[in-house]
Design brief:
Helix content: over 70%
Number of domains: 1
Strand content: 5-15%
Shape: elongated
Largest sheet: 2 strands, antiparallel
Oligomer: single chain
Structural class: mainly alpha
Length: 116
């Protein structure tokens, strides 16, 4: 019985690792690459990758826009910083949902069922 609980807790900690902003992208990508983990773990990995890649593309586009524009450079950089803050807050919110063992989901992007 204790072996099952330890295995469940180690899996739960691994899911928290996926939700670390920026750094969690790599273990999530590795899980999908090697087709490991359970169904929920793979679903959370896909969600983390979508959110991280969306943030990265938007951040890079805003960065290129700031360097190309002389007149609106400050508002674009402020928007990029707000986007990054939002990305970190979304990851924190998903961690709280995981900690409470609720389903994790974002509008348009997807939903992951109840976490173990």
């Amino acid at each position: 019985m204790t072996d099952f609980l330890e295995r469940d807790e180690s899996r739960h900690i691994k899911l928290f690792l996926y939700l670390l902003p920026v750094f969690g992208f790599f273990p999530a990508l590795w899980t999908l690459y090697r087709r490991g983990g359970g169904r929920q773990e793979r679903a959370l990995s896909r969600l983390v990758i979508k959110v991280c890649l969306g943030w990265l593309v938007a951040y890079l586009l805003l960065g290129f826009g700031a360097t190309a524009s002389e007149s609106s450079q400050i508002p674009i950089l402020i928007t990029a910083s707000l986007l990054t803050s939002g990305y970190f807050l979304v990851n924190f919110w998903m961690m709280v949902q995981l900690w409470q063992r609720k389903s994790i989901g974002l509008p348009i992007i997807g939903r992951v069922g109840r976490m173990p």
